[in-house]
Amino acid sequence: xxxxxxxxxxxxxxxxxxxALAGTSLLxxxxxxxxxxxxxxxxxxxxxxxxxxxxxxxxxARPSTPNLEAFAADAVxxxxxxxxxxxxxxxxxxxxxxxxxxxxxxxxxxxxxxxxHHTLAEVLRDxxxxxAAVLGSFVLDARFGFAQGYDVYQQxxxxxxxxxxxxxxEGIAIRDGFDRRATVVSRRAVEWLTRTxxxxxxxxxxxxxxxxxxxxxxxxxxxxxxAAGRNNLGAGYDGEIAYVDDEIxxxxxxxxxxxxxxxxxxxxxxxxxxxxxxHNDPYHAVNIYEESVRVPxxxxxxxxxxxxxxxxxxxxxxxxxxxxxxxxIGAPEEIDGLDLGVGWRSNEDRDLASxxxxxxxxxxxxxxxxxxxxxxGEQFAVRVEDWKLxxxxxxxxxxLYDLGRDPGELENLYDARPAVVTRLTPVLDAxxxxxxxxxxxxxxxxxxxxxxxxxxxxx
Length: 459
Ligand SMILES: [Zn+2]
Known about the structure:
- This protein is of the alpha/beta class.
- It is 27% helix and 22% strand.
- Strand 7 (168-169) and strand 8 form a beta hairpin.
- Bound molecules: zinc ion.
- Zinc ion is lined by residues 48-49, 88, 271-272.
């Protein structure tokens, strides 16, 4: 017998014990409240420009993320997590709203997230949460709508806090600093947790670490550690990741010290990857190949989430509904993602293994070339199981890859596998029609998603 039990733990936690039966395995979830248990917290960490495959927690051979490896031992780790796009602004807008990039309208950096959307911080603030964010970069400045729902939004960059020394970005004058280093983000995070957080209130603390973004200038000890035995190419990027890993470790240690580790849902993810010259692109925002969009996604809530690795493909739109689902709070109607809570039971992981994953990029620096391709316009992609179809009409690119046999996306099978193209094309077309429909159009529910799946994929 299987009991489908949905988490309804929070608001003010009722003193109760819930049993969840998954197949034959028994999960005991003791949900306490009352004076002995502080209210829940959410620590949402977004690491900029983070390729999952350059993190040792995701199998990278160099020790780039020892702290996150320790964290992962007690966490749900999604091995196939995708960012919504390969650009900072669009991906963060999706992370904050649970809506696909073409639908929320932030299709490039410096585009404003509309007020009408309900962000995670707005939903939690309405539930009585104290909300704060510490930013790593001006790219997420409040003027672009990212501060919606935050009581405190720390975006005051000092000239000496970061590594960028620029006076202008996307046509906007940068008067103070543009970014801040991981050390400063973590110091401010710990200060907020220690001094500003109100112990009787639940909280959301969002942290954005910008360091892995080029240029790579990690503190020398990290550069040395990650450079051992090779030339320096690549060590700078890995060094920045190791530096962020250490600084996240500092925040996690503070949670422990403050007695908050057990009551805090910690979510660690990223906004996009980095080309590192694969497919001719050293950076990001150009392609939606795997290196540009595969990011970490890990969630830890001791005693509440069952730790383990999950292979089902997941997307950035899922993060908001999954956080709210774990907290027992309803998600806004407009969202596109799934509450992955259902996926924590292995039988449903299997059901979701063939769900389509959608990717999007709009290029906004006209005139640039990548080898022979003039960059411009939109790219759309869908992944279904091991197949990935990429369509970029403006760049005259139609590509199909078998990620199982060709994870580096080197052999375009578009012409060689017409049956697969025929199966995936309607799935992507249906999604494109959906995401480009005018605002107010009926939202995509689970039923519609199921239809979409069925359109191009037969189980
Ligand atoms: Zn970014």
